[in-house]
Every structure is written in structure tokens, then in C-alpha cells.
């Protein structure tokens, strides 16, 4: 009999909660990974760098298990329910251990797998690993989920004092001794190699120490670029928080924002398709497809917006300050539905995380929890003067700036700002009438 450990978004062999408990079971642990067709078939880009990242990481884990522990990872392609129906006919399984995910599809997937395994008398055990506090572990005094970040973060930090962030011990003697399993190629999965450079998982201590002074300037290397590693669990959130607590409270706050949005998604799953504030579902978006395409390509005539979109398209990364600027521009200047922008970011961002992406877009559009008020409209020019005064970042991504090849602004800022405020105000007043 085997204990199966199911890798999902926890691609590491150390300080991994579900793996820690699986390795304490009496049966040897056999790890599996599933390239989930339900997710992969929706990806339009067959060179998607995130699939490359996952493929590389699973191959590395597999090699480590084979060379150090005479074990391996069984890698499958298909929908998880189909895969488990096949596995139970091929492997004697005592139980399945995995770490929890809070996205709506993940919850449906896990329920379907759990229901099936019950019919086979196989236990399905899930653990908290991707966050420090989940769902309703941090609540108001009335036991309700927080809807505002500052009191949530205050309670979060207070609760953190009660926790040990020491790495969990791993009983590596408990791995199943098996011959190496085959590793499917990218092509067998339906993808091919990406040209996008993937960031390392090392925590850049010098950057974290200066994070509070450098993080808002896109020309500087002032952020950690660890988003993709947090997303897929190649680093431990507990170790990141332990370091942040020692090194920089502003970076710790960013990690708490991540948990805040994961908590919001877990408790208010309607945010995936609707505004967190229901009244904002009635905003009459213009949704001009031609204007949206110019925004996607970085041809709006607003240099800071265009630089951000071009950086995203070329690298899968966009600086966080610039993310706020381009999102504000799309939703306020162009009055294009935040869901359009959110979907585009979901296609392109290496560090795409449903909760944070949704939360960030709803924040920018004014529709979300603890969002900036609708009447605040970022001025791209003043944002440029404040955060890229020497145009270093802009000139890197918009080399034709100042020539006849660079387009004129597609919309006047003053007019667009007034139009946005008027549109929002009227829509909100109409919902009250």
C-alpha cells in the first residue's frame, strides 16, 4: 500500500505541510503530479512560460527524488478525477495527502476527487500550506471576515505572534522506493519552450532591506520578483514571512495583502465574476474593442501605460506601481470593464494568482473591497513625474518616444477623468433610486 502525495502549488520537498504529514504515515509515500487538462486546455499561448516553469520544476523535483531517495514522481496528463480513477486500478492506495487551494475550480476538483476516493475507501486529507492564515482564521470580533485591509493586517500580525515559523521536519526515509517514472515532454503536454526568462527563487535580501524606499520606482530593481514562486509554492510562505518580519515591515505588508485577497476569494467567491460592491455591477462600461487592443499592445500614447504593457507582453512581469497605473487607465480613462483587463493579465502574468489579480483589478476600478474611491483617477503624467522622472523605465520600453512614430494620446486626461467620475456617479445614484 502507498500513501500518495499530490503536488499542486507546493513544488518543494522541504517545509511542506501535507508532505510533512504524509511522510509520517506508515505506508511509503509515492508523489504524483497531474498536468490538468481542465486548466491547460484554456491556455491560448502554447508557449506559456508558466507551463514551462511547472514542467522544469517537476523535472527538478523528480531528479532529486531519484538521485537522493531512490524514489520518483508519477506524472500524469488528464483531468484529476480521470487520473485517480485510473490510479486506483494500478496502485494500492491507502490515502491521498495534498495542500489546500482556495480557488473555485480547485474546490470543485477536490470535492469530486474526495467523493470518488470515498467510494474506494481511500482517505483524502488536505492541509493549510499556501497561506499563514486561511478563510476565517482572522475575523472581526463578531466572527465575520474582514473587508478592510488595515484592521485585518493588525489582527493578522497580532495572531502571528502565537505561531512558530520554524520549518517543518521532513522524514525523508519514508519515500517509496521505485524505479524512475517517465517524464512527459512539453510537446506531449501540448506546449513548447518559452523564450521568457524565469526569475530565480532566491530571496534577494538586499532588495528586501531597501524595499520601502525602492519598491515604487519601476526603473530600479526594487521588488523581489518572487510572485511566481509564491504562486507555485517553490518557496515556503512561512519562511518568507519569517524573513519579512526580520527585514522589512513594508514587504511583510505586501505578503499580508496577498493573504487578504486569498481570504476575500475564499469567503466571497462571487468576486470572480462580479464586483465586490454589488452597486458597481451597474456601471455602463464603454468596452471599445479597438481601444482595448491599443491598451493591450502598449499604443495608448501615454508612455508610462505603454511601457508597462510592453514589459508585460515581453517578460510576463509588470512592476506593481505600473500595474496600478495601467489598470486605472483602462477602467477610468477608457471605461473598459475591469474583467477585460483582469483576463488579459491572467493570460500574461508569470505570477498570475486569481485572488491577487482579481483584488488588484477591483481595487483599481473602485469596485472591490477596500478599493480606492471611484473619483480617484490616476494621472499618468503625474505618476511618471513622481516615479520615473528621468524616463529611464519608459525609454527602455518605448524607445520611439519623442519621434513621429509614437502615437498621440488616445484620450484627453481631463476629459476622460470627468467622464469616468460622471459615469460612476450616475450609475451609483441610479442603483439607490
TrEMBL record:
Keywords: Chromophore, FAD, Flavoprotein, Lyase
MF GO annotations: deoxyribodipyrimidine photo-lyase activity
One Pfam family in the UniProt entry: DNA_photolyase
Domain Photolyase/cryptochrome alpha/beta as annotated: residue spans: 1-132
SUPFAM superfamilies, per database record: Cryptochrome/photolyase FAD-binding domain, Cryptochrome/photolyase, N-terminal domain
UniProt record similarity statement: Belongs to the DNA photolyase family.
Protein name: Deoxyribodipyrimidine photo-lyase
Amino acid at each position: 500500500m502507498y500513501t500518495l502525495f499530490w503536488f499542486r502549488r507546493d513544488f518543494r520537498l522541504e517545509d511542506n505541510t501535507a508532505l510533512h504529514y504524509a511522510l509520517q504515515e506508515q505506508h511509503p509515500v509515492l508523489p504524483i503530479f497531474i498536468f490538468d487538462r481542465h486548466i491547460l486546455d484554456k491556455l491560448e499561448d502554447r508557449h506559456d512560460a508558466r507551463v514551462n516553469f511547472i514542467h522544469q520544476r517537476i523535472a527538478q523535483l523528480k531528479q532529486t527524488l531519484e538521485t537522493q531517495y531512490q524514489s520518483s514522481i508519477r506524472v500524469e496528463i488528464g483531468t484529476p478525477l480521470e487520473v485517480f480513477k485510473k490510479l486506483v486500478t494500478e496502485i494500492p492506495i491507502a490515502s491521498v495527502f495534498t495542500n489546500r487551494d482556495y480557488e473555485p475550480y480547485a474546490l470543485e476538483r477536490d470535492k469530486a476527487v474526495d467523493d470518488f476516493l470515498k467510494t474506494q475507501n481511500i482517505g483524502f486529507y488536505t492541509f493549510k500550506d499556501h497561506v499563514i492564515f486561511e478563510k476565517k482564521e482572522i475575523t472581526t470580533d463578531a466572527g465575520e471576515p474582514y473587508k478592510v485591509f488595515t484592521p485585518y493586517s493588525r489582527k493578522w500580525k497580532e495572531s502571528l505572534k502565537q505561531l512558530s515559523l520554524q520549518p517543518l521536519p521532513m522524514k525523508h526515509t519514508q519515500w517509496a522506493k521505485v524505479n524512475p517514472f517517465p517524464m512527459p515532454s512539453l510537446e506531449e503536454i501540448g506546449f513548447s519552450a518559452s523564450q521568457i526568462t524565469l526569475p530565480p527563487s532566491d530571496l534577494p535580501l538586499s532588495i528586501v532591506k531597501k524595499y520601502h524606499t525602492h519598491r515604487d520606482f519601476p526603473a530600479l530593481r526594487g521588488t523581489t520578483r518572487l510572485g511566481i514562486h509564491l504562486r507555485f509554492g517553490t518557496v515556503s510562505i512561512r519562511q518568507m514571512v519569517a524573513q519579512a518580519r526580520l527585514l522589512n515591515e513594508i514587504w511583510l505588508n505586501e505578503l499580508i495583502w496577498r493573504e487578504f485577497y486569498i481570504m476575500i476569494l475564499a469567503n466571497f467567491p462571487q468576486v470572480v465574476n462580479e464586483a465586490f460592491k454589488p452597486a458597481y455591477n451597474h456601471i455602463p462600461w464603454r468596452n471599445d474593442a479597438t481601444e482595448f487592443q491599443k491598451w493591450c499592445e502598449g499604443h495608448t500614447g501615454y508612455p508610462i501605460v505603454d511601457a508597462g504593457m510592453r514589459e508585460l507582453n515581453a517578460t510576463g512581469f509588470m512592476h506593481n506601481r505600473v500595474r496600478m497605473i495601467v489598470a486605472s487607465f483602462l477602467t477610468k480613462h477608457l471605461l473598459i470593464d475591469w474583467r477585460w483587463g483582469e483576463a488579459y493579465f491572467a493570460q500574461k502574468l508569470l505570477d498570475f494568482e486569481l485572488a491577487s489579480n482579481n483584488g488588484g483589478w477591483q481595487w483599481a476600478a473602485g469596485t472591490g473591497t477596500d478599493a480606492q474611491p471611484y473619483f480617484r483617477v490616476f494621472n499618468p503624467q503625474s505618476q511618471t513625474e513622481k516615479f520615473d522622472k528621468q524616463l529611464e523605465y519608459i525609454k527602455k520600453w518605448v524607445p520611439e518616444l519623442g519621434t513621429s512614430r509614437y502615437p498621440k494620446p488616445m484620450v484627453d486626461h481631463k476629459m476622460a477623468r470627468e467622464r469616468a467620475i460622471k459615469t460612476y456617479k450616475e450609475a451609483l445614484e441610479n442603483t439607490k433610486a
